[in-house]
UniProtKB/TrEMBL annotation:
<keyword id="KW-0805">Transcription regulation</keyword>
<dbReference type="InterPro" id="IPR001647">
    <property type="entry name" value="HTH_TetR"/>
</dbReference>
<dbReference type="InterPro" id="IPR009057">
    <property type="entry name" value="Homeodomain-like_sf"/>
</dbReference>
<keyword id="KW-0238">DNA-binding</keyword>
<keyword id="KW-0804">Transcription</keyword>
<dbReference type="InterPro" id="IPR050109">
    <property type="entry name" value="HTH-type_TetR-like_transc_reg"/>
</dbReference>
<protein>
    <submittedName>
        <fullName>TetR/AcrR family transcriptional regulator</fullName>
    </submittedName>
</protein>
<feature type="DNA-binding region" description="H-T-H motif">
    <location>
        <begin position="24"/>
        <end position="43"/>
    </location>
</feature>
<dbReference type="Pfam" id="PF00440">
    <property type="entry name" value="TetR_N"/>
</dbReference>
<feature type="domain" description="HTH tetR-type">
    <location>
        <begin position="1"/>
        <end position="61"/>
    </location>
</feature>
């Protein structure tokens, strides 16, 4: 494993244990078995390292969203959205403590918000990707004209996020079958307009 990967893996362990506000680059370097200066050869700051870890935590959702546009006009809309929902449920559940740690310190939140703005990134981009997919399906005539694509995207991803938040708060784990059942319940609510 190369040093950058080792640092990222150590950062993930330390962040999940301590949270973002209480994690130091010194602790991460110690856990990675390298000098603190080595971190800065690969990452600009603790926040940059945190975002790298968070992106890795959300890799299934990112992959599902990336492939979503190419699925327009192919398999059923519901199946495509279920793929996104299942990826979101899994990734949100695994990364909830990291996501929530951004809010532990107003300065950290401000720096992350600035960084997201500079890179044209942020949590709203996932919703925009689902919205763009639904608009494409609407143009193809595969979903009704009355469907509000943004509201449907917000309902789908928001439901997944809230569900993952509750599971983390309650200390519950859910099987893949239970996740699929939850995704089906959400999609049942959206289905009348999507068929």
């Amino acid at each position: 494993m190369d040093l950058k990967s080792r640092i990222a893996e150590a950062a993930e362990r330390v962040l999940l244990t301590n949270g973002l506000a209480k994690t130091t680059t010194k602790e991460i370097a110690k856990a990675a078995g390298c000098s603190e200066g080595s971190l800065y050869n690969h990452f600009k700051s603790k926040e940059d390292l945190f975002l790298h870890v968070l992106r890795n935590q959300l890799k299934n959702l990112m992959a599902a969203l990336t492939s979503l546009q190419s699925l327009a006009g192919t398999s059923p809309v519901r199946d495509n959205l279920k793929r996104v929902a299942l990826a979101a449920l899994g990734d949100f559940n695994a990364s909830m403590s990291l996501i929530c740690s951004i809010f532990s310190d107003p300065n950290i939140l401000y720096r992350h918000r600035e960084g997201f703005t500079e890179r044209n990134e942020g949590p709203h981009r996932a919703n925009e990707a689902v919205e763009a997919y639904l608009l494409k399906e609407k143009q193809l005539g595969r979903i009704g004209d009355r469907v509000d694509a943004r509201a449907a995207a917000d309902l789908l991803l928001g439901s997944c996020f809230q569900h993952a938040f509750q599971l983390n708060f309650l200390g519950r784990e859910e099987s893949l079958e239970e996740q699929a059942q939850f995704a089906d319940r959400v999609l049942d609510l959206l289905s009348p307009g999507l068929e």
